[in-house]
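User: Some background: our group keeps a shared notebook of sequences we're curious about, and every so often someone picks one and asks for a predicted structure to add to the entry. Today it's my turn. The entry only has the sequence so far, pasted here. Could you supply the structure so I can complete it?
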Amino acid sequence: MVCLIILFVILVVVVFALSLYMHIREKRTGKAPFKSYKTMHEVPSYALSSWVDDEVAARQLYRKPDMTASELADELGLPEMRLIQVIRAAHSKTVTEYLNDRRIQSACRLLREQAGMTIEDIVTEVGFDSPSTFLAIFVRAMGQTPKQYRSQMTRYISDKE
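Assistant: Of course. Here's the predicted structure to add to the notebook entry:
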């Protein structure tokens, strides 16, 4: 019984060390975590999801207004169905919803940090195809208009200072 426990602990440590090694290697070399796997199906979804999130953010792939799941998959070098599965599993969203969430996050940052930027400029900057689409998605996600959000954040920031 003790031998089984020791064997289990050793196995857990080895798996953890391998995961840590892959993470460090990916950060240093910029290589995707799935490059070391023989097939895409061997890659753990959590590793692939984290990599997709990092790549979409770093390369700002959400900024292309008409980005489709197929185009995103091509940009990332993944099979489209695998990308769809990973985003669905990690975020419970479609690829379009996922990209729109990224756009809204970016818009919120710009609304907070770039007071001189107009809403129309932000719409274009973050990758929405029209102000009306941006407004509808922003209100659904944030529960307020972009102007209300900016005003609230401006008050909040000035209160902290």
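Suggested note for the entry: Residues 101-160 form a domain with the Arc Repressor Mutant, subunit A fold (CATH 1.10.10.60). The chain has eight helices and no strands.
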